[in-house]
Write a structure and sequence with these properties.
With 402 residues, this protein is α+β, with helices and mostly antiparallel strands. It folds into 3 domains: 58 residues; 155 residues, Helix Hairpins; 141 residues, Distorted Sandwich (Glucose Permease (Domain IIA)). Helix content is 61%, strand content 16%. The strands form 2 sheets. Strands 1, 4, 5, 6, 7, 8, 9, 10, 11 and 12 form a 10-stranded antiparallel sheet that branches. It has a two-stranded antiparallel ribbon with strand order 2-3. Strand 7 and strand 8 form a beta hairpin. Helix 1 crosses helix 2, helix 2 runs antiparallel to helix 4 and helix 4 packs across helix 5.
């Protein structure tokens, strides 16, 4: 039908401009144009006939590409978790080195103290040798025989035995200190060797982390530059958000009412609107609610606020409560959830280090974590949420921004 209509229009067009004209060049151009359009119609009819097959083929390509994108996003999550574990391992190794440094310093102090005691014993022994030499010059018999009375004789005998016993004790302590010093020096050598091994392990771990960070940066760049990958990332995050909602609903079953800690609190969380402290020292860069991605014009919903901050910046609990969750969560990285009673929760995501574990009581303003980029696509940031009965509410009206 489309082909027939186009042919009719082309025929009328040809008749209209085939008459003699003063401008022969115009007729030549029009004939060329007519031939071009004729072949275009012929090619167009071929395209229309082949279109359903092409669409089907294109849909298959899209499906395969979507699966590839999903795999890239999943690889991103795996890399995030691997990187987080590597950082935790490196941090643990550094703590081990720090503890080992303390032990090494303690061993050095003990060794120095032993050497001082040994030096004092050697000085004492030297003086006793001189005294014994002089006593030998006098002669033991003369020393005992020079007593003025029987009492004086036995007194000198007792004193001599005490001195000899003391000498024996000093000699025994001297030998024990020397042996202990040798063992201490060996312990010190072992500790230093262990420290060197740990430092080498940390160096390897840091190099491994650097490679992981570089690979992650490449993936992030690809995700940010392609609309399809951005869509896949958003879809993955939505799945994580659903899983988080299920986790929060699970808390309702575990803790059907108020926690004992929050019940004992003289002030309810609902009374604190506009009075909560900022959870971190930084700049609010993303607001709560629906938003549109400027690059790809993708509509999405943000269940909290994002606060840009330096890596390692302390994250503080906005109010006292009990830690319900402190672990890795897909899409949120290192995540802490604190229960404040009355079914109010605050969430702190993308942390570098977590300083609390499940069941720990926290105070308002207490440092619970540090800022990081775990699970984040935008670098070091704190994703902060306030939830009531598991549903997200805008955190800004709750925070004292003055």
């Amino acid at each position: 039908m489309v082909k027939h209509c186009l042919k009719q229009r082309l025929f009328r067009f040809h008749v209209a401009f085939s008459a003699p004209s003063k401008h022969r060049w115009l007729g030549s151009i029009l004939k060329t144009l007519w031939i071009y359009l004729f072949f275009s119609v012929a090619m167009g009819s071929h395209f229309l006939m082949a279109q359903p097959e092409s669409i089907e083929h294109h849909e298959k390509d899209v499906a395969e590409f979507t699966e590839k994108e999903t795999e890239i996003i999943n690889e991103m999550h795996r890399m995030d978790l691997l990187l987080n574990n590597s950082r935790r391992h490196a941090s643990s190794l550094k703590n081990d080195i720090s503890h080992l440094d303390d032990k090494i310093n303690e061993t050095i102090r003990f060794s120095n103290d032993l050497e001082k005691r040994i030096a004092q014993t050697e000085s004492y022994a030297s003086q006793r040798l001189v005294a014994l030499y002089k006593l030998s010059q006098l002669g033991q018999l003369n020393f005992m025989a020079s007593a003025n009375s029987v009492y004086d004789f036995f007194y000198r005998k007792t004193v001599l035995e005490i001195i000899l016993k003391q000498d024996e004790h000093v000699l025994s302590a001297f030998l024990e200190n020397k042996a202990t010093l040798n063992r201490t020096k060996q312990t010190l050598l072992d500790q230093k060797a262990k420290k060197a091994a740990l430092e080498a392990d940390v160096t390897r771990q840091i190099q491994h982390i650097s490679l992981q960070v570089e690979s992650r940066a490449g993936l992030l760049k690809e995700i940010r530059s392609k609309r399809a990958l951005a869509l896949a990332a958003i879809a993955s995050f939505k799945e994580s958000a659903v899983e988080l909602n299920e986790k929060l609903n699970g808390f309702k079953k575990e803790i059907p009412g108020q926690t004992p800690y929050s019940t004992a609190s003289p002030q309810s969380f609902s009374d604190l609107k506009g009075l909560l402290i900022m959870p971190v020292n930084g700049k609010i860069v993303d607001l709560f609610g629906p938003y549109t991605n400027d690059q790809f014009h993708i509509l999405n919903f943000r269940s909290g606020i994002n606060i840009k901050a330096e890596r390692g910046e302390p994250i503080r609990a906005v109010y006292k409560g009990v830690t319900l969750f402190a672990n890795w969560f897909k899409g949120y990285g290192n995540l802490i959830i604190i229960d404040h009673g009355d079914h109010y929760y605050t969430l702190y995501a993308h942390a570098e280090e977590l300083f609390k574990k499940k069941g720990d009581v926290v105070e308002a303003g207490e440092v619970v974590a540090t800022v990081g980029d775990s699970g984040s696509l935008t670098g070091p940031v704190l994703h902060f949420e306030v939830r009531h009965h598991g549903k997200p509410i805008n955190p800004l009206p709750w925070i004292d921004q003055g």
